[in-house]
Amino acid sequence: MSLRLFAWLLLLFCVDLFRHELTGAHADSVPSAAKTLVWGPGLETNVVLPARFFYVQAVDSSGRNLTTSPGEKTFEVKMVSPVEQFTRIWIQVLDRKDGSFLVRYRMYATYTDLHIHILLKNKHVAKSPFILKGPVYHEGCDCPQPSGPVWEADMHCPQTFSQIERDLALYASVDPDRNAQEIPQRFGQRQSLCHYTVQDNKVYVRTFGEHVQLPDVEFFVNLGDWPLEKRKPTEKIHPIFSWCGSNNTRDIVMPTYDLTESVLETMGRVSLDMMSVQANTGPSWQEKNSTAFWRGRDSRQERLELVKLSRAQPNMIDAAFTNFFFFKHDESLYGPLVKHVSFFDFFKYKYQINIDGTVAAYRLPYLLAGDSVVLKQDSGYYEHFYNELRPWEHYIPIRADLGDLLEKIQWARDHDEEALKIALAGQQFARNYLMGDSIFCYYYKLFQEYAKLQVTEPKIREGMELVEQPSDDLFPCSCHRTKARHIVKFPLHQSDFVLFHLT
Ligand SMILES: *[C@@H]1O[C@H](CO)[C@@H](O)[C@H](O)[C@H]1NC(C)=O
Ligand SMILES: *[C@@H]1O[C@H](CO)[C@@H](O)[C@H](O)[C@H]1NC(C)=O
Ligand SMILES: *[C@@H]1O[C@H](CO)[C@@H](O)[C@H](O)[C@H]1NC(C)=O
């Protein structure tokens, strides 16, 4: 038996043991198998994601949604393929504690006609069994969808992303030939600036992501923290792809490395990911502590201010450093360093402070996904989705200098129902727009729109190296799609970004 298979069996076993340990919570009503709702991308054959997922909303016999957990083990999910004896699929049912469940599964092989059974006390729920017809490819199967439009339709990608439109509106066209000359000259041979070409099937960028035929495209990625293009839009600007944008720069933003990895490595990642956080949102709103909470390191002046404020007003704010790195540690001012707190424990608190670090705080997607309310510092830095976030709808805004932080916490304490409403709207935002399918759509759209602006051919430049695709030797699969000539996986993994640059 291979090590990987063994590890996988072990995991399956552990998950099962874990489930048996937990007993169901008390329900305020009883779910009905017929009325319960089931939906999501994981019920469709052609939405290939590293971990596929779908949702279950418990509904009672009178048609009311349950709003508290009917118990972790209420629903049982089984997956079988009629043509296989044993399906190697790792399934997790995550209780979101609000009457809904997130079911994620990872396939280790490709199956034909996958049957998904969702059971409530041995009764089929909603339209269960859900049948995914035809070959259901696992993530490791090298079987790209040759047609971009078909892939977009399969993934239900939105028509547009306003941030992409904003970023690209600054360019009437992009000239790969000119950029290839000018960008390295202007920004130097920085370690953090990588030059990519995706062309024909000679150049690959390896990832663990969904794959689709991408247009030929040539671009520069900034792996550093800070955005680079500081020129005014009226001057001659260069397109640079960055994880983070700012009010004073013109970089083209893409989903952060952290969020991307959290989507790609989901179920393989021990640390935080956008799905497991949904199952670990702590006690219910009423049970949460109403002291505002923050932990982190000293990467910005305002963070120092925050910790000082917390020491002055401990009944309002519990903020402390877990690490000192940038500033000199003065224990009399900032207190002792405290032990690292599991991110899931953040959600024991109602009010979460989101404050810039070196650049935008990349924890915001995870904070939003919880059921606490986010107090977000006004910031010149932004990630790819901030443009869609609305103050007072998805979060409570606080001034860049934190001058109104105490006042805003007091507001939240005095307006508990409104604060809860904002918390839930923020959570809904994360559920709708920050999951794997959305992130893939964003990348695809970005490259597609960018490629359209190119006025010269993308080329493989001197010094560029080919990145080899991994092959899945353990569970080979046969691809039934017509293979395209241009086969490229999304260039999403940081190690790949580093592999393929001008040296
Ligand atoms: C019940 O939950 C589903 C799924 O989240 C949602 O679409 C629907 O609007 C909810 N129904 C009510 C009455 O709140
Ligand atoms: C709430 O949290 C604060 C700060 O962590 C702590 O001092 C306080 O005892 C907690 N309150 C309750 C009721 O647990
Ligand atoms: C950055 O720009 C946004 C959008 O124009 C604005 O709301 C925000 O106040 C600005 N923040 C800072 C700190 O410059």
Automatic annotation (TrEMBL):
Keyword Glycoprotein included in the entry's annotation: yes
GO MF assignments: glucosyltransferase activity
Glycosyl transferase CAP10 domain ranges (all copies): 213-457
Protein known as: Glycosyl transferase CAP10 domain-containing protein
Pfam families: Filamin (PF00630), Glyco_transf_90 (PF05686)
Pathway: Protein modification; protein glycosylation
Family statement: Belongs to the KDELC family.
The Filamin repeat ranges on this chain: 28-134
Keywords: Endoplasmic reticulum, Glycoprotein, Glycosyltransferase, Signal, Transferase
Originating species: Etheostoma spectabile
Transmembrane segments: none
Any Gene Ontology biological process: nervous system development
GO cellular component: endomembrane system
Catalyzed chemical reaction(s): L-seryl-[EGF-like domain protein] + UDP-alpha-D-glucose = 3-O-(beta-D-glucosyl)-L-seryl-[EGF-like domain protein] + UDP + H(+); L-seryl-[EGF-like domain protein] + UDP-alpha-D-xylose = 3-O-(beta-D-xylosyl)-L-seryl-[EGF-like domain protein] + UDP + H(+)
Extent of the signal sequence: 1-27
PANTHER family the record matches: KDEL LYS-ASP-GLU-LEU CONTAINING - RELATED, PROTEIN O-GLUCOSYLTRANSFERASE 2
